[in-house]
Amino acid sequence: MGTVKIDDVRKSYGALEVLHGIDIDIADGEFVILVGPSGCGKSTLLRMIAGLEEISSGQIRIGGKVVNDLHPKERDIAMVFQSYALYPHMTVAKNMGFSLKLARTSPAEIDRRVRAAAQILGLENLLDRYPRALSGGQRQRVAMGRAIVRDPQVFLFDEPLSNLDAQLRVAMRTEIKALHQRLTTTIIYVTHDQIEAMTMADRIVVMNGGNIEQIGTPLELYDEPANTFVARFIGSPS
Ligand code: ADP
Ligand code: MG
Questions:
Q1: Residue minimizing CA distance to atom 1 of ligand 1
Q2: Which residues are CB-neighbours of 209 under 8 A, at least 6 positions away?
Q3: Cut 0.80: pTM above it
């Protein structure tokens, strides 16, 4: 189950606290977007959910299980980063299957999962290509394919579209939405782009300076922003 429960989570770097008691309750299958200005703590929170960063206090549960002390590999998650360096010397298929190979999955199972993910992403005809022969959008799809083959309950995205040009970014939003509908998994997605948040999310978490200003559906934030920060950020007239 892809529920994620974040309970009074704090993070300090040395004496500096950068996240001040974060509470978020995410339902199985929900598409939740963390949005807020640069430096507000979005990536730190996502990295703590992934297990790439230790939490200073509080509790994170994924699928009902406390994961505070679990290694990233022991968590039912896969992460797609902003800088999705593909292995240049490996084909698309090899790039997508590599983490499974490291996990000693059988070659037949790797092949099956890579083909299934390629079909979902429209990469069937590109499996033998090398990254240098792919467009930006195709590369981004391969990066998502690497996450999909692992079949996680929860996908974590950190600004996956910020390196793409504006036109491609809009197209990829639609693709990621469609992907969410097909996979029926939970997605937690970080962006500083409020349009991306408003068009893609089931619910939006508006962050500012290590705190949550408001959590709500795009419509709720637009109609009833909790304060002027949210109103300005979302761009609603108030
Ligand atoms: P966002 O992703 O919203 O732009 P981050 O989560 O990257 O913000 O950063 C939140 C705050 O934590 C920032 O003030 C940043 O400078 C600080 N920070 C992030 N990582 C570290 C680190 N490894 N050491 C010290 N400070 C950090
Ligand atoms: Mg960030």
A1: 39
A2: 40, 41
A3: yes
